């Protein structure tokens, strides 16, 4: 029997965009269902994946000399080169999306990148301008918690400062890399990151433990640690894990999604979600594939 769920809002994808948007919608009192084809990961799960990535794959040295690159394991993919391709860090589905395991790099789009057709004659311009988008980028940086300085001469304009100062350059960056760049006429600058340089909203500053992918201290932003616990306090919000969307059903005109057809990845049972409003937030690969 196919299970059917009805809700006001259905958010497809429990990653950084979907979870942040759900947090803003939750206070409205409207019913919200969030779907993701991956599970939730506990701190215990994170610790185990971190241990496996460091011990089993010798990732502390960044070279997996003791592993056979042609062998597929529960932690890696086959590779024709000499190094093992570690997938456990990079190819996870789960509540939190890519932000579960990203490095926290938070560069803004360049103004020129939004007008490639006008400026360079190829592709398509964005339907909105950078000026329209900029205030929302600022709000997102504040909500997520981004460390950065306005020292990049090539960065797009800002209407406000970063929530936190940038991380200091490492010894290598300041004493070796930056001087080498200067000799080449290249400007060295800091990189905005969703990693706390100082304590921010109850989360500690970076402990420099060199495990950004799983960040045991919680200094790097991850939706499941910051905003999902807030959503769990709302009775009108449901987060459904291990649900894979397979088809979007539209109205007769084809201009509005009216239902999402999905399956539970564990038992293959079918589920249909019908909603007044759908938000497709499945990332840069899954969103266009689904649409």
UniProtKB/TrEMBL annotation:
The keyword ATP-binding does not apply. Belongs to the GMC oxidoreductase family. InterPro entries: FAD/NAD-bd_sf, GMC_OxRdtase_N, P2Ox-like. PANTHER family: PYRANOSE 2-OXIDASE (PTHR42784:SF1). Pfam families: GMC_oxred_N (PF00732), NAD_binding_8 (PF13450). SUPFAM superfamilies: FAD/NAD(P)-binding domain. One of its GO terms (molecular function) is flavin adenine dinucleotide binding. Its cofactor is FAD. This is Glucose-methanol-choline oxidoreductase N-terminal domain-containing protein. The lineage of its organism: unclassified sequences, metagenomes, ecological metagenomes. Keywords: FAD, Flavoprotein, Oxidoreductase. Residues 167-291 form the Glucose-methanol-choline oxidoreductase N-terminal domain. It comes from hydrothermal vent metagenome.
């Amino acid at each position: 029997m196919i299970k059917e769920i009805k809700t006001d809002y259905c958010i497809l994808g429990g990653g950084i965009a979907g979870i942040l948007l759900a947090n803003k919608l939750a206070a409205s009192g409207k019913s919200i269902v969030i779907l993701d084809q991956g599970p939730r990961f506990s701190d215990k799960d994170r610790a185990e994946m971190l241990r496996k990535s460091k011990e089993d794959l010798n990732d502390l040295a960044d070279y997996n000399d003791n592993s056979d690159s042609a062998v597929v394991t529960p932690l890696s993919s086959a590779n024709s080169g000499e190094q093992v391709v570690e997938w456990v860090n990079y190819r996870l589905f789960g509540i939190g999306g890519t932000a579960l395991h990203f490095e926290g790099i938070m560069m803004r789009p360049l103004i020129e990148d939004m007008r490639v057709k006008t400026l360079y004659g190829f592709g398509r311009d964005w339907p909105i301008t950078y000026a329209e988008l900029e205030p929302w980028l600022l709000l997102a940086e504040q909500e997520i918690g981004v460390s950065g300085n306005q020292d990049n001469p090539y960065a797009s304009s800002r209407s406000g400062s970063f929530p936190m100062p940038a991380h200091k350059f490492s010894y290598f960056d300041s004493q070796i890399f930056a001087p080498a760049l200067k000799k080449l006429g290249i400007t060295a600058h800091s990189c905005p990151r969703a990693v706390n340089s100082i304590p921010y909203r109850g989360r500690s500053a970076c402990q420099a433990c060199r495990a950004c992918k799983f960040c045991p201290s919680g200094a790097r932003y991850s939706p499941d640690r910051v905003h999902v616990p807030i959503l769990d306090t709302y009775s009108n919000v449901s987060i459904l894990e291990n649900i894979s969307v397979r088809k979007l059903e539209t109205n007769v005109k084809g201009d509005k999604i009216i239902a999402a057809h999905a399956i539970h990845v564990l038992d293959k049972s079918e589920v249909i979600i019908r909603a007044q409003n759908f938000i497709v937030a499945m990332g840069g690969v899954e969103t266009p594939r689904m649409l």
